[in-house]
Amino acid sequence: xxxxxxxxxxxxxxxxxxxxxxxxxxxxxxxxxxxxxxxxxxxxxxxxxxxxxxxxxxxxxxxxxxxxxxxxxxxxxxxxxxxxxxxxxxxxxxxxxxxxxxxxxxxxxxxxxxxxxxxxxxxxxxxxxxxxxxxxxxxxxxxxxxxxxxxxxxxxxxxxxxxxxxxxxxxxxxxxxxxxxxxxxxxxxxxxxxxxxxxxxxxxxxxxxxxxxxxxxxxxxxxxxxxx
Length: 228
Known about the structure:
Elements: H1 2-7, H2 14-30, H3 42-54, E1 66-69, H4 77-83, E2 89-92, H5 96-109, E3 114-117, E4 130-135, H6 141-147, E5 152-162, H7 167-177, E6 181-191, E7 196-205
Parallel strand pairs: 1-2, 1-4, 2-3, 4-5
Antiparallel strand pairs: 5-7, 6-7
């Protein structure tokens, strides 16, 4: 694991390495039915989960507090917290098995300033002020904007870890929400050691929504998909 991280230009100290290895072992041990992740090979897990999450800090300064919407088994929130321990993170996840896993991880790794929101994030129910939203869920950008409208502060960042085919979503946001959100980063890159194409898309919130006519209440999340 250490060698794969080094090849990806991700350097962790001894404590961080221990935390990530502990997290990895917990993930493997609790994933007997693959409800936590469908990616099960050792190297794919390191590259497509841990590196994919941690590499974001290479391209953007991460604000705090930050909410990880649709975190699943803790992606990208847990790897980001390990690499950037100063972050105050809320992990939002509605599914009971994953909630239990996240709580076990937080306790076992002794992570501070990390909590779990045990519901779907919707604009009317999650209003804790946040300076940033991060997500790797496959939900479209516009839906995440709507569901986080109650918590993201003006000037806050929406950080999307996406696959390469995201242009239609960006175009839709420009047409519908141009007065509310400004695209501040659209970074194309490949995951080291894999050639897997990724896209980091970041918006800044300019204004609050004038009305809540458009809401997202029932959409489900899914984990990062290898085909994304």
